Q: What sequence folds into this?
């Protein structure tokens, strides 16, 4: 059974806070401890404890390092450690996608190649335990659709291995690009690890999405700030009662066949998620079509009206359907000397689909006097060369294709 989860980060987010919230929402502490032991055996102890923050109950998680841990870990070495650990595939891929985002942010912030990135605090055993713990907790809870609301980043200054840094610190500012953020209060409310977890694993949903709420987990930060709960909340649930979508259907045997392309185009303009025709044989062996329309609930009435307006039908049947859709974003690749937008479909932090859209490929084909199939083949090769392969960690993506 797969679940959805929505993260309320309006009070900030750090790795230990998110781990605590997932444990508080029911994730197995044993499963989390076992996963961390797989990666860094004997290095840490994960200790949960009930606390209050601004007078409200919450779970705090402390990750106690056995030995003095003075991190200065190079990204390639950490990547090898994580890649070689005996974690379930989905957990390992999610952990790698989080640390890849952290390494990319560090590389950009410090102006160094990613292979030369050295983590400081983020490379410590407790940060590794936070990330591995969160990814194994999501796996244990069977969360396949993780979303997060706006993130409170904080304000002021914070003392770090890099020195006294302005809040949001450079790595957080880099990681947060493209996401809804706010200051939200004094101090460092969102840390690089917390921001990397959210931006690598959670899509953005500004408000709590419809769901059948099972439990709410409340994860505490180390400080107790009177009047402002220093917590992260995770709302864990299953699909909401209302349908994710409706399928409208009608059989039509007396519409001029030349009209159908305009019917489908008008339904898509009216907000249909998809519209298609199925050829059928009706009574008396008459050739006909079933018109099918995938309608978001909010557009159902407008689409019913459009079916009646643009076809000869006298009735529409409909059914509610669930949907599982990939998260999407855009990157690009060098195809025949041009940066061609590539649409990425991803789920659980890993790539599932990577392909150009027809319009972009067709324009490149026309400009180069090439057959479309040549551009599509070159785009597939370029995506492959760029590592945009099914199962690979999701790279940094833009929400829309470049203009
Ligand atoms: O460890 C690294 S690479 C690091 C980079 C930065 C930059 O902004 S650059 C900042 N920090 C600070 O370390 C602590 C711990 O961060 P966690 O993500 O491990 O909680 C925090 O104050 C960061 O601002 C670390
Ligand atoms: Ni740094």
A:
């Amino acid at each position: 059974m797969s679940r959805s989860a929505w993260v309320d980060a309006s009070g900030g987010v750090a790795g230990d806070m998110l781990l605590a919230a997932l444990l508080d929402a029911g994730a197995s502490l044993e499963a989390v401890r076992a996963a961390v032991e797989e990666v860094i055996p004997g290095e840490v102890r994960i200790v949960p404890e009930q606390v209050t923050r601004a007078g409200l109950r919450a779970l705090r998680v402390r990750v106690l390092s056995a030995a003095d841990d003075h991190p200065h870990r190079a990204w390639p070495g950490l990547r090898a450690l994580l890649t070689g650990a005996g974690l379930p595939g989905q957990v390992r891929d999610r952990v790698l996608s989080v640390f890849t985002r952290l390494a990319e942010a560090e590389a950009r912030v410090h102006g160094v190649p990613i292979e030369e990135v050295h983590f400081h605090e983020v490379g410590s055993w407790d940060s590794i335990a936070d990330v591995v713990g969160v990814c194994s907790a999501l796996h244990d809870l069977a969360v396949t659709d993780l979303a997060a609301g706006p993130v409170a980043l904080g304000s002021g200054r914070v003392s770090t291995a890099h020195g006294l840094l302005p809040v949001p610190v450079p790595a957080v500012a880099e990681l947060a690009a493209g996401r809804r953020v706010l200051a939200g209060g004094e101090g460092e409310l969102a840390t690089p690890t917390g921001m990397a977890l959210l931006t690598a694993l959670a899509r953005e949903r500004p408000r709590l999405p419809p769901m059948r709420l099972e439990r709410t987990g409340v994860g505490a930060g180390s400080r107790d700030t009177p009047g402002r709960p220093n917590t992260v909340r995770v709302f864990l649930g299953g699909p909401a009662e209302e349908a994710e979508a409706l399928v409208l259907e009608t059989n039509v045997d007396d519409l001029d066949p030349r009209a159908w392309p305009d019917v489908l185009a008008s339904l898509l303009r009216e907000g249909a998620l998809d519209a298609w025709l199925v050829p059928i044989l009706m009574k008396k062996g008459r050739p006909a079509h079933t018109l099918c329309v995938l309608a978001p609930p909010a557009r159902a009435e407008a689409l019913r009206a459009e079916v009646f307006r643009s076809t000869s039908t006298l009735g529409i049947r409909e059914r509610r359907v669930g949907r599982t859709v990939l998260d999407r974003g855009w990157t690009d690749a060098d195809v025949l000397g041009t940066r061609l937008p590539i649409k990425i479909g991803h789920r659980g932090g890993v790539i599932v689909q990577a392909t150009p859209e027809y319009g972009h490929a067709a324009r490149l084909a026309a400009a180069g006097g090439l057959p479309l199939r040549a551009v599509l083949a070159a785009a597939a090769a370029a995506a492959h060369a760029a590592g945009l392969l099914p199962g690979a960690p999701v790279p940094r993506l833009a929400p829309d294709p470049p203009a």
About this structure: The pocket of nickel (II) ion (ligand 2) is lined by residues 106, 109-110, 162, 171 (CB under 6 Å). Residues 89-110 form the longest helix (22 residues).
